[in-house]
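Support reply, case 0932

Customer input (verbatim):
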Amino acid sequence: MRASDQAYATLLDEIQTGVLAPGTVLGEVEQSARLGVSRTPLRSALGRLASEGLVAQSSPRVTVVTDVQSADIRSLFTVRRALEETAARLAAASPLAPSFAGMAEAFASADLDGDAARDAYYSLIADFDAALDAAADNDYLVGALQNIRIHLVRVRRLARYRPERLAASVAEHRLIASAIAAGDGDLAAHAVHVHLHNALTSILDSLETSPALAPRAHSTGRKRTS
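Our regenerated output:
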């Protein structure tokens, strides 16, 4: 792996997991030394993160980890809804649609009891996303969704764990998978719409009721998701 790719992967993981919190200053000298790379690959990595809206340059040699405000989350979900509803319709019309019956069964038997079980569930979600991408078979749509998912990792981390919401999410994913398997694009898209409405409501409620989780004032400043 190239030095710039390694630096990017490390910084991305640290931003997504909260090791590098919003507002953290990423000085070139300090980060180059910490990551064991020269400034050229570091700048390349920071440039990629900036294009994704995860960092912003505050001076020629200083970059800051961006924040995520409620408005950013709403905008993110507006784009996500349009993309995922379209992907669900395409998947339902795909030759791969019948394979989603197995995904529906997997959601039906999902276990949420304990951290390991929940980690397995999130892995199942990742498998579902990959299957949806393959069935949609549209490189431009998949590329846009992948960008959205980079930000969703941060957003989900901000949301307070709610057992009832996670259980509802399992049922919602099962319905989406079942509708795709049945070739019912309208139902699949509607199920996606309901799932994302509920997810957004839960995330915003978590931020409002848990001040300690609320983002700080430094916003991403992003007007769109590329």
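We compared this against your earlier run and they match. Two observations from our side: The beta strands are 25-27, 55-59, 62-65. The chain has nine helices and three strands. Please reopen the case if you see a mismatch on your end.
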